[in-house]
Amino acid sequence: MSVKKRDPLTGHQTTGHEWNGITELNTRVPRVIWWFILVTHLYALIAWVLLPAWPGITGYTKGILGIDQQERVERQVADLRAARAPWRDRIAAATVENIRADPDLSAKVAETGPALFGDNCAACHGAQGQGGPGYPSLVDDAWLWGGDAEAVLETLRVGINADHPDTRFAQMLSFDGILSRDEIRTVAAYVQSLSGMETGADPDRLAEGQVLFMDNCASCHGDAATGNTDLGAPNLTDDHWIYGGDDAAIFTTILRGREGWMPAWEGRLDLADRKILAAYIQDLKGQAQ
Amino acid sequence: MIAKFTVAERQWSLVLLVLTALAGLAMAALGAGDAMGVHGFIVLIVSLGLIFVVGGGLFAPEPTEDRRRAYYDDPIKLGLVLAMVWAVIGMGVGDWVAWMLAYPEARFDAAWSSFGRVRPVHTTGVIFGFGGNALIATSMHVMQRTSRARMAGQVSPWFVIIGYNLFVVMAVSGYLMGVTQSKEYAEAEWYADIWLVIVWVTYFVLYIRTLARRNEPHIYVANWYYLAFILVVAVLHIINNLAMPASLTAAKSYSLFSGVQDAMTQWWYGHNAVAFFLTAGFLGMLYYYLPKRANRPIYSYRLSILSFWGITFFYIWVGSHHLHYTALPHWVQTLGMTFSVMLLVPSWASAGNALMTLNGAWHKVRDDATLRFMFVAAVFYGLSTFEGSFLAIRPVNSLSHYTDWTVAHVHAGAMGWVALITFGAIYAAVPMIWRRETMYSWKLVEWHFWLALAGTMIYVFAMWNSGIVQGLMWRTYNEAGTLQYSFVDTLVAMHPYYIARAIGGLLFLTGAVVGSYNIWMTIREVGHEAKARDVPTDSEAGEPAVPVAE
């Protein structure tokens, strides 16, 4: 073909300059480019007329549509809020039991709960509320502060060891210096025996552990070690553990103490949201079992 | 290197090096215990090493010939090699952070390896390390050839290249130590920024002086673009980095701007870094190596003028499209949006001009992977500038912003356009500069091409999908009128795309490694007939002669 010929396609003139073997054709700007310029500039002109665009000395051109992004977003938020108000007001007024009993409202809980829980709670309590080391499960029967809806709602409102003025306080103090390491090991073995774990400790040692427990621990965890929901002290006779039930974990708990931190949600989630969550936790529990 | 200096130049270099060594010593002493001290040591060690190099050649015989008769390509060699070194580092780190996003535990459990520190190592490594060295080196090649004049300076080209790399090393090592100004693509702290200003002004003067010496009546288009790149990057860098150091002995400063003004200044800088670093500079590259390789005249000189002035004028306005739906006043957003749309014309005019230049050379595009690199780069340039203008339209942006769509867009530009044009230019330049017949292996160039193209496609498609899925999930409402998905749900949905992206990146990185090997073997290949690409030379330094006027 004509590849060897110089510029076989256009036959256009070069500009007459050459740089290190490179030349340029003097081809006219294709007409499509001018059209393209026209269209994009028209778009810009129209946008400038319609929307806020050019600054002046004392302000800027507002545009004939009179759109302002701030006002617009506020209106959209208000509209959305108004659309949700009917059912949210009903949820805010109802008890958690009534919400769960009402098919309409419990459908809303099923729709709204997952994203609410996923965005606010899952990072600590797990995607299904199953908990993890340091964070209690919300779907078992072991409760620090009680599992009835009122107690859960209160926990959500004020948090645990949080910055809310009414916050719940829960402190497992450090027994470093109060008990010797050996005593700690002894009472730890006793604690393990309570939930039926095989500890390998002889009965004398367990009895010794029980005495230590009565003297040091029962005030919070109760004589039978079944916990105290007024103090957020967990039941030690079941096999649910926040920090772990093996020797090392229990030893560390007693030696160093524990103080879990659960944020307060009043001010961040309104009453309806907190009720939805309290109801949703129950749903999650139903799914887990 | 030193043998080609006059004694006066050697002495002058020594003085300069002693000064930088002293500056390094001062930084090391005053900044002890801070990242600044570490940087002082780096400066000191580099300066001392170079003092030995220069001192060792101090008493070698002077060059006798008239150096003006030959081109000066030695500094370019260093620049090209460093570009490939940074390519492997920058892309390697990039792929690592890509895996880290899919598997967050894929890191050493130490502060330096946290995502926030390693990510800027990637961005700085590829943009400034790889892209910057390639731009500086090719600009030195192009300015001499298209001006038919030797570079105006014997020491300053070395100063520019070595000094620039010192900046990049300080920036990157600083990030790992936790140093950052928190300004994207301008993370390096105040003393590194000041150093870059010195280097950059030297570069600008070098370029202008070489152009002033030119033996051609007109200035070729490639030089317009390179010059726009150097000049505007200087302005951007200085203004965006205006800051007050918290202390003169530590790497911490406070920006002169605050609030929305700071955001606007940052994105005026950020988008014009895209415009003048990642576009104008590489268009300069395209305008020389593409017609040279295709052996075709530029399609239209008039189109070149239109697109050059269009690009320089419109780009300056569009930074605010990074801040749609923020505290930035609405009118600034409208201006950014409309100028972005108007910008599309000159961008496409440039891409079209490049593609039309290939008319009559399509068989070469088919057969020659080097030219194909440049062809595909021009196509990606066209695609990503279209996408950019599209994403700048506010309603579109409300879906795309903060999602991986932006990441897809950036990488279509960075991998598809910037990196591919650079690889094409380097494969064209390396045989010219080392005066070899061809590259060591054309098959490896083919391999590199297909690895790079496949890597880019996988990357970009994965991030498009991920971004659009993510954007749609964020805005999905259920019938109750609340958001359907939690943030974690979107992460779960994005995970497979993140793995695909990391695989795409791995292919691209592999291509860069293959390319580095090929370049290294081309350089090492001695014994072959040395071929002067420009004009046969009688220069005793073996440099290609500057051709005399016809």
Automatic annotation (TrEMBL), chain A:
Question: What does the record's cofactor remark say about binding?
Answer: Binds 2 heme C groups per subunit.
Some GO term, biological process aspect, for this entry: which one? proton transmembrane transport
Q: What Gene3D superfamilies is this protein classified in?
A: 6.10.280.130, Cytochrome c-like domain
Choose one Gene Ontology CC annotation of this protein and give it.
Answer: plasma membrane
Ordered alphabetically, the record's keywords are: Cell inner membrane, Cell membrane, Electron transport, Heme, Hydrogen ion transport, Ion transport, Iron, Membrane, Metal-binding, Oxidoreductase, Repeat, Respiratory chain, Transmembrane, Transmembrane helix, Transport
The record's subunit annotation is: Component of the cbb3-type cytochrome c oxidase.
Protein name per UniProt: Cbb3-type cytochrome c oxidase subunit
Record lineage: Bacteria, Pseudomonadati, Pseudomonadota, Alphaproteobacteria, Rhodobacterales
Automatic annotation (TrEMBL), chain B:
Which species does this protein come from? Answer: Maritimibacter fusiformis
Pfam families named among the record's database cross-references: COX1
**Sequence ranges assigned to domain Cytochrome oxidase subunit I profile in this UniProt record:** 1-550
Positions contributing to heme b 1; low-spin binding:
H122, H411
Q: What is this protein called?
A: cytochrome-c oxidase
Q: Which cofactor does it need?
A: Cu(2+); heme; heme b
Q: In its keyword annotation, does this UniProt entry include Phosphoprotein? A: no
Q: What is its EC number?
A: 7.1.1.9
The UniProt record lists the keyword Translocase = yes
Q: Which NCBIfam families match?
A: ccoN (TIGR00780)
Give the location in the cell: Cell membrane
> Which reaction(s) does the protein catalyse, per the Swiss-Prot or TrEMBL entry?
4 Fe(II)-[cytochrome c] + O2 + 8 H(+)(in) = 4 Fe(III)-[cytochrome c] + 2 H2O + 4 H(+)(out)
